[in-house]
Structures
1.
Amino acid sequence: MGCLATHLAWHHPITRHLNEEAGVWWLTHVAGLNPATSSVIVRWDREGIHDRELRSDLIEACRTELARRVDEPDDVLLPCASCN
């Protein structure tokens, strides 16, 4: 089944070829997050699908990013802030 990060990794052009290690690799190398210390990941692991506020915040962030990509299609793969 895989965690949320694994599903993201399986659909990302850089990590879609990976298997079991996909989620952790995507988090550390693409998103620039430490799975053990990221407040978003820790909160998701604790409360996950039962936290409606977190789910709402995440979907809003995804919609905002989608709108940015539609408005700026040449900048779709901008590096994340934590990767700099």
2.
Amino acid sequence: MKRPTAEQPTGTETGPVASVRPKRRIVAKRPTGGSMLMLIALIVGVMILAPTVQRVISQRQEIAQIERDIQQANEDINRIKADNARWNDPAYVRAEARGRLLFVQPGDTTYVVIDSSRSKQVDVPADLSAEVHETKADPVALYVDSLIGADTAGAPHEPIDGKTDPNASTAPQGDQ
């Protein structure tokens, strides 16, 4: 580093040498026509590209969602294939038949467990006849009569839940 000489001011002197040096003024720069044109071009470019970039981003999100759906579908397909492969095993089929359909192998003893906590109700079988009988009514006519009856039926006089409507009037509709 050089040491200041007598001709070079150090900046801390207050004598005649310091007053000779002019102070720098900060000059505010005005925008030129070219810089304004570039700014306008930049703003227009952003305005033109913003919707396109937004579409690209939304398409990327849709693609990611579809890829996740495809992956889930492939996992489901693999699970279903594994289930189908299990049904090819006779032991699995036999176990499912015993569990779901209550099938019994010859020689097995079947036990029926009755829940003692439930009240004992005796199922009375319906009167069954050994004879087969046919109805003489026309099903289409019964259906049409049912539709007509449902259309012309009035509102029920008693509410279904058993509560009365305080706003309902008890006077006949035609006398008002």
3.
Amino acid sequence: MRLDSTSVTRSGSATEAPPDPRALLARNDMGRDEKVELLHQWEFDLREAMVAEEENMPASESPNFGLAEVLDALRALGATSRFHDVSTKHG
């Protein structure tokens, strides 16, 4: 799973990724678009992990947050899921 400790900003520079969506929202050194982009990546990664787990391929590591927290953070930023109104985890 890709939920690693670094993220790449639009300018191409690597920054230390926050440990969870709540910490991400509190960051002042990242713009809204960067936060939404990271949350969308986390959402995708969590959905991929859910599918893998259903297929008996559990992730070797799990984040300390879940999909609901990511979706709540997206809503707090006025953004939506890239997977809204879909019938499967993958869209």
